[in-house]
Amino acid sequence: MKLLPYIPAFVKDAAKAINRISRTEFKDVADKTLTELLGITTLIVQMYALRNEGIHEVLHLWCAHSDEIALCPHCGSISETLHQEEGRCIRHLDVWGKKTFLHFLSRRFKCEACGRVFSEELSFVDAHRRQSVAFEMHVYQSSLAGTCKAVAVREGLSHSTVREIFNRIAALKKSARGLGVTRVLGIDELSLKKRHKQFVLVISDITGKCILAVLPDRGKKTLEAWIDTLSPEMKKSIKFVSIDMWAPYYQAARSKLSRARVVVDRFHVMKQLNSRLTQLRTNYQKESSPEIQKALKGSRWIIVRNRSDLSPKEEEHLNHILRLCPDLRTLYLLKEEFRTIFEKVRCREKAARFLDAWMFKAERTGDKYLAKFLVTLKNWREEILNYFIERITNGFVEGLNNGLRTMIRNAFGYRNFDNFKFRAIALFG
Question: Model's pTM, two decimal places?
Fold first, then answer.
């Protein structure tokens, strides 16, 4: 069993570090090298201390402010009257590969103009934070490339600190970006946990290739509530909404985005037809002779895959199956004809004629598996035909979902929806 390195509490927490080191341990700095390495224009490094804390070498830098004045946030006047000083310590980016802490005096001034007391605003650290802005951004960027737990171990921080930094910066970036003009909206669900039916709703800008929002469930009311948050200009800019055949998505889009055309993703339609073909093959295999059972064994992907993508060996195997199984051959040829309509036709009106002709032929076969698919096709006919206007698909959304699934696997799952949402938007927003 591999043991994680021991991280002393005072390395993890800058507030504890300030009480662990005395001023007498510091040595004077001979030149401006450490000030230049620090890279903070408002601080001057005056002293340093290098200590062994646990298994780590930790660098402590005692800094002085380069300016003796501050700007009053109340009236905007410059103040020189110092009211109070208190020692403060924060974690900063590593210097010379050593974990680095900055020690300085946190100052309060009294404004001569308005008489009010105020705390000095510092550009390199936010109020009440224990890490510098630069270090927090480093933690955030590292968390994008790995897990919060791995970053915590590497940087000598607690897991909760890394997670809080990541979520806070991700939320700030999301609010700063806002929502721009979106022409094609993609809506699809993603399962957070296998076998738990815990779905989240991922809304994306297909044209801009990014996530717009992650919602906690795929219900109609949840989606409608999100659409209600959009500005009138944003709603007006949406011309198409690409969905799978899930009725709540359609109902929400129709009620809240009446100007937009709803497009059913062609690959979800094709998936349904392939499912019917697979059902027929499975049933055929159970009831057929040993010769046909042997031919059909391991043929699932050969039958549902596009014929143009088959290797010569797979093509030979397919032809052998189609010769032995006439019912399966009929449905397979109809499947390939259906795919050809989506591949070759470029006009909605022409596609409507081809699709109606295909449905007529499919009905005449009397196949019970095709009959179920035809019901779906009739229910979603107009939305399926909208694909042929600009050939819009959910291909980007499916690719995005694959990226999100990889993110979930790397994190070994997410128990907290907000953590998942922040990371998803940070990576793909």
Answer: 0.66
